[in-house]
């Protein structure tokens, strides 16, 4: 049973990846400082799996603490690196914090991995590296342009770091960069899901909290974009589908199937939906009427982006399985479960 370290493993995507890894026969190990996650996620993971997953409450930027994990778990075969700040708007307001955390933690992790001769990395990247693309959908060969936010720039910088490390003559690192789009939804058990601390930065939890009466009104950030209805278009992928992409990426690394030391894959549905389409689909599947208004544009947002998912299908054997409607239904089920806790 291969042991896989999962940084940010108590977070939204990380927790679902931990479940998917365990169910696929791997032994996940969680590292999380819980700065942007809740310990309740651990109980949800344990309830789904029926076992406790080894968990270390440390910061990935703390090299000494990270070494301690690698020493204790002395047969780690690979790492999935989720741990990062991820809010576009917050990154515009606090760019230094984002560069220190997102880039700094990767540098520390790569150094410790090299010390312990762990040579397999799945890196959590983002479609934000494409900036404002000239054409849609974006492929892995779409040129990366200046990112629209400091968050996007941290992902670009991290990808550059990985490529430069991999180009070194003594390099043994093999990496898969997963550029994913907009994860939504929750596990079918409603025991884990997206649990933002404070006011949500992402669309779907703001929708579900508005429907639940936690938020008075949903503000849609911009209604004058050059899109089908004036609102942003994004590629919304169910979080469990996304988690499964990480599992197949890990296996590809362990099997050394890639011909290059760094491979890049878009992970999305291949289809774009506008914010208004998401709102209307949620209203239909939940039976809830949302109180929303069109507000000003948000700094750092691109008008539209969605994936060409061909390479992931051919290279990873990965395709999404869950519709937008089912994804939103699972998010509402999760919100209702939270209300009962």
Automatic annotation (TrEMBL):
Cofactor or coenzyme needed: NAD(+)
EC number: 5.1.3.2
An annotated Gene Ontology molecular function: UDP-glucose 4-epimerase activity
One Pfam family in the UniProt entry: GDP_Man_Dehyd
Ranges of residues in domain NAD(P)-binding: 5-326
Keywords, ordered alphabetically: Carbohydrate metabolism, Isomerase, NAD
Pathway: Carbohydrate metabolism; galactose metabolism
Reaction equation(s) it catalyzes: UDP-alpha-D-glucose = UDP-alpha-D-galactose
Family: Belongs to the NAD(P)-dependent epimerase/dehydratase family.
NCBIfam families, per the entry: galE
Summary of subunit composition and partner proteins: Homodimer.
The protein's name in its UniProt record: UDP-glucose 4-epimerase
Organism field: Hymenobacter negativus
Gene name for this UniProt entry: galE
């Amino acid at each position: 049973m291969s042991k896989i370290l999962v940084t940010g493993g108590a977070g939204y995507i990380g927790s679902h990846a931990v479940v998917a890894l365990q169910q696929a026969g791997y032994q996940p190990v969680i590292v999380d400082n819980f700065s942007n996650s809740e310990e309740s996620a651990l109980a949800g993971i344990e309830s789904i799996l029926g076992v406790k997953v080894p968990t270390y409450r440390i910061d990935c930027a703390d090299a000494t603490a990270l070494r301690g994990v690698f020493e204790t778990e002395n047969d780690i075969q690979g790492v999935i690196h989720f741990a990062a700040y991820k809010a576009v708007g917050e990154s515009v307001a606090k760019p230094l914090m984002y560069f220190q955390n997102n880039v700094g933690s990767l540098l520390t992790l790569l150094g410790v991995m090299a010390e312990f001769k762990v040579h397999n990395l799945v890196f959590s990247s983002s479609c934000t590296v494409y900036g404002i693309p000239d054409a849609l959908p974006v492929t892995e060969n779409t040129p990366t342009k200046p990112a629209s936010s400091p968050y996007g720039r941290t992902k670009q910088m991290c990808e550059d770091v990985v490529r430069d490390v991999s180009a070194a003559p003594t390099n043994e690192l093999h990496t898969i960069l997963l550029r994913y789009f907009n994860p939504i939804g929750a596990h079918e058990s409603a025991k884990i899901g997206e649990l933002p601390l404070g006011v949500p930065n992402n669309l779907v939890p703001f929708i579900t909290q508005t429907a639940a009466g936690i938020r008075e009104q949903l503000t849609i950030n911009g209604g004058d974009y050059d899109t089908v209805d004036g609102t942003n278009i994004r590629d919304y992928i169910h979080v469990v589908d996304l988690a499964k992409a990480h599992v197949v990426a890990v296996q590809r690394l362990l099997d050394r199937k890639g011909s290059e030391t760094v491979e890049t894959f878009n992970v999305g549905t291949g289809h774009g939906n506008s914010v208004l389409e998401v709102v209307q689909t949620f209203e239909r599947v939940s039976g809830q009427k949302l109180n929303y208004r069109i507000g000003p544009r948000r700094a750092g947002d691109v008008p539209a982006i969605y994936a060409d998912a061909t390479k992931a299908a051919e290279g990873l054997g990965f395709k999404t399985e869950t519709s937008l409607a089912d994804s939103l239904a699972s998010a509402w089920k999760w919100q209702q479960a939270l209300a009962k806790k």
